[in-house]
Design brief:
The complex is a heterodimer. By secondary structure, chain A is an alpha/beta fold. Chain A is built from 7 helices and 9 strands. A 6-stranded mixed beta sheet of chain A has the order 5-6-7-3-8-9, with helices on both faces. In chain A, strand 8 and strand 9 form a beta hairpin. In chain A, helix 3 crosses helix 4. The radius of gyration of chain A is 18 Å and the shape is globular.
Chain lengths: 254, 244
C-alpha cells in the first residue's frame, strides 16, 4: 500500500504561543479516581513536532496520562500547560487533538461514511462528504464506506478510527495502542501514516505495549509503571532490543 | 489552511452560525441513528399503546369516570414511555466511547447537552403526536377542539421532562444499575411537571366554562418557569458531570 500523502491528513500549522514553549507540559500531575491513584507526580514536556513514545504494562496509567494530555481528564493535583500557559489549557488543547483511543469512538449504528461526515461537520469542515471519501480512501476502506460500523471487523474499525482521528487535520495526535486489532497491512498503513504526519510537522504522543513499540518513530521514550514515570530519555539509536532492556530496568526499579 | 489547500472551517459560516451548524450536525446524527435502529420510538410507542389500552379496560367504562381519569393516565403513560426512550438516549455514545470524540470537538458542553435534549424531545414529541389521538379515541374524548392548547401543554411538559431527563440519563448511563437509577432519580424531579400537565389537560377537557378555566394561564406560566429554571440548572450540571 502506498504511503498516504501526509499533507492531506494533517494540518501542521504552528499553534499560537511562544515559539520555544512546548506544545504540552505536565507539571507534577497526580490523577486519582476515588482511592485509586492512576498517575503520581508525573512531569514531562512535549515540544512541537516531536514524538514521545510511552511504554508501560497494563494498568500502568498510560490511558489516564493520554486523557489528561488530551484535556479530557482534569489533574487531581499538578497542572497542565499548553504553549507554556495553564490558562484554559484543556479547552485550548482539545480542538487541536486527534485522539485514537482503545475504543473506536465511532457510532456503530452509522456507516463508515456517515461517521466521518458527521465528525467533519462537527469540526466545521466544508464538503464533509468529500473529506469522508478522501479519508476512507486513505485508510483503504472505500469499498466498505456504506457498511455499518458494527458489521466491520475490528481491524477495519481501527482503520476507520484512525481516519476519524485525522478528520480535522489535527496538529497534535494522541494515540493509545493504535495497532490494536490491525493486521500486517493495517500496521504498515499505520506506520506509514504516522511517519508521514511526523514529517509534515505533527506532534505525536503515542502509548504502546513493548511488543507494538516503534522506536524508529519516536524522538523520546518514556516508561510508566504503576502511575510513576520511571524513565524519560532520547529514543535515537534505540533498537527494539535496547527498548526491551530499558523497559525491564525501568519496570523493575523500585 | 491545510497544505493540501483544504481549510478546516466552513468559510460561509459566521461565528454566530457555527454553533447552529454544529447543533444541526448533532441533531441530524441522532435522527439518523434512530431512523436506522428505531429503538426509542418503538419502545415508547408500544408502551403508550399498551398503557392506554390497560387503563381503558381497567376502569369503569362510564364516560364520566374515563374523562376524570384520562389526563393523569395520559401523562403517566407519556412520562413512563419517555423514561424508556431516555434510557437509550446515550446508548450510541456509550457503546463505543463516541462521547470522548464529541468532547474533543469544538462544541461547547452546553451545545452537546441541548442537542441531546432536543433529540430526546423530538422523539418524544413524535411519539406524543402519534399516540395522543389514539389515547383520546380510546377514552372517547375530543382532541381536535383543544389541539392547539394541548400542543402547547405537551410542548412545555416535554421540554422540561427531556431537559431533566437528559441530565439524569447521562448520570445513570455510567452507573451499574442504570435501568433502576433513571426512573428513581427522574420521576420525583418531574413530579411537579406531571401534576401541572395533568391539571392543565383536565382544564382543557372541561372547556372554557369549567370551574378552573381561569387558572390555565397560571399553570402554563408555572410550567414555562419550571422549564427555564431547570434548563439552566441542567446545562450547568451537565458541564460538571462530563468533567473527569
Amino acid at each position: 500500500m502506498a504511503p498516504p500523502p501526509a499533507s492531506s491528513l494533517t494540518r501542521p500549522t504552528s499553534p499560537p504561543g511562544p515559539p520555544d514553549a512546548p506544545l504540552l507540559a505536565l507539571d507534577g500531575v497526580t490523577k486519582a479516581f476515588g482511592r485509586r491513584v492512576a498517575l503520581r507526580e508525573v512531569s514531562l514536556t512535549l515540544p512541537r513536532r516531536t514524538c514521545l513514545l510511552v511504554l508501560g504494562p497494563n494498568g500502568a496509567g498510560k490511558t489516564t496520562l493520554l486523557r489528561v494530555a488530551a484535556g479530557l481528564a482534569r489533574p487531581t493535583t499538578g497542572s497542565l500547560l499548553v504553549e507554556g500557559s495553564p490558562r484554559e489549557a484543556a479547552a485550548r488543547l482539545r480542538p487541536q487533538v486527534g485522539y485514537l483511543a482503545h475504543q473506536t469512538l465511532l457510532y456503530e449504528g452509522l456507516t463508515a461514511r456517515q461517521n466521518l461526515a458527521f465528525f467533519a461537520r462537527l469540526y466545521g469542515i466544508p464538503a464533509a462528504e468529500a473529506r469522508a471519501a478522501q479519508l476512507l480512501a486513505r485508510v483503504g476502506l472505500e469499498r466498505h464506506a456504506d457498511r455499518g460500523v458494527g458489521s466491520l471487523s475490528r481491524g477495519m474499525q481501527q482503520r476507520l478510527a484512525l481516519a476519524r482521528a485525522l478528520v480535522h487535520g489535527p496538529a497534535f495526535l494522541i494515540l493509545d495502542e493504535p495497532a490494536t486489532g490491525l493486521d500486517a497491512d493495517g500496521r504498515r498503513l499505520l506506520r506509514e501514516t504516522l511517519v508521514g504526519l511526523k514529517a509534515a510537522g505533527a506532534t505525536i504522543l503515542l502509548a504502546a505495549h513493548l511488543t507494538d513499540a516503534e522506536p524508529g518513530l519516536a524522538d523520546r521514550v518514556a516508561v510508566l509503571v504503576e502511575g510513576e514515570l520511571r524513565h524519560v530519555g532520547p529514543a535515537a539509536g534505540l533498537a527494539a532490543s535496547d527498548l526491551a532492556g530499558l523497559y525491564d530496568r525501568a519496570a523493575g526499579a523500585a | 489552511m491545510a497544505p493540501d489547500g483544504s481549510s478546516t472551517a466552513d468559510p460561509t459560516a459566521t461565528p454566530a452560525t457555527r454553533p447552529a451548524l454544529r447543533l444541526g450536525a448533532l441533531l441530524r446524527k441522532d435522527l439518523l441513528l434512530e431512523w436506522r435502529r428505531k429503538e426509542q420510538l418503538a419502545a415508547m410507542g408500544a408502551f403508550t399503546l399498551l398503557a392506554a389500552t390497560l387503563f381503558v379496560f381497567a376502569v369503569d367504562p362510564s364516560p364520566t369516570e374515563l374523562s376524570r381519569l384520562a389526563p393523569g393516565a395520559l401523562w403517566i403513560s407519556f412520562l413512563f414511555a419517555g423514561t424508556l426512550g431516555l434510557a437509550k438516549t446515550f446508548g450510541p455514545e456509550e457503546r463505543s466511547g463516541a462521547l470522548t470524540a464529541l468532547l474533543l470537538a469544538p462544541v461547547d458542553r452546553t451545545g452537546l447537552f441541548l442537542a441531546k435534549a432536543a433529540s430526546a424531545a423530538i422523539f418524544m414529541g413524535i411519539m406524543e403526536a402519534l399516540m395522543a389521538p389514539v389515547f383520546f379515541a380510546l377514552f372517547d374524548l375530543p382532541l381536535l377542539p383543544i389541539l392547539p392548547r394541548f400542543a402547547l401543554v405537551a410542548g412545555l411538559a416535554t421540554a422540561g421532562f427531556c431537559l431533566i431527563g437528559t441530565l439524569v440519563a447521562f448520570a445513570a448511563a455510567r452507573a451499574a444499575a442504570r435501568e433502576l437509577l433513571l426512573p428513581l432519580l427522574l420521576l420525583p424531579l418531574v413530579l411537579p411537571l406531571l401534576i401541572a400537565a395533568a391539571r392543565t389537560t383536565r382544564i382543557l377537557l372541561e372547556g372554557p366554562e369549567g370551574p378552573a378555566a381561569e387558572s390555565l394561564p397560571l399553570w402554563l406560566a408555572l410550567m414555562a418557569a419550571f422549564d427555564v429554571i431547570f434548563g439552566v440548572l441542567c446545562c450547568w450540571g451537565f458541564e460538571r458531570a462530563v468533567e473527569e
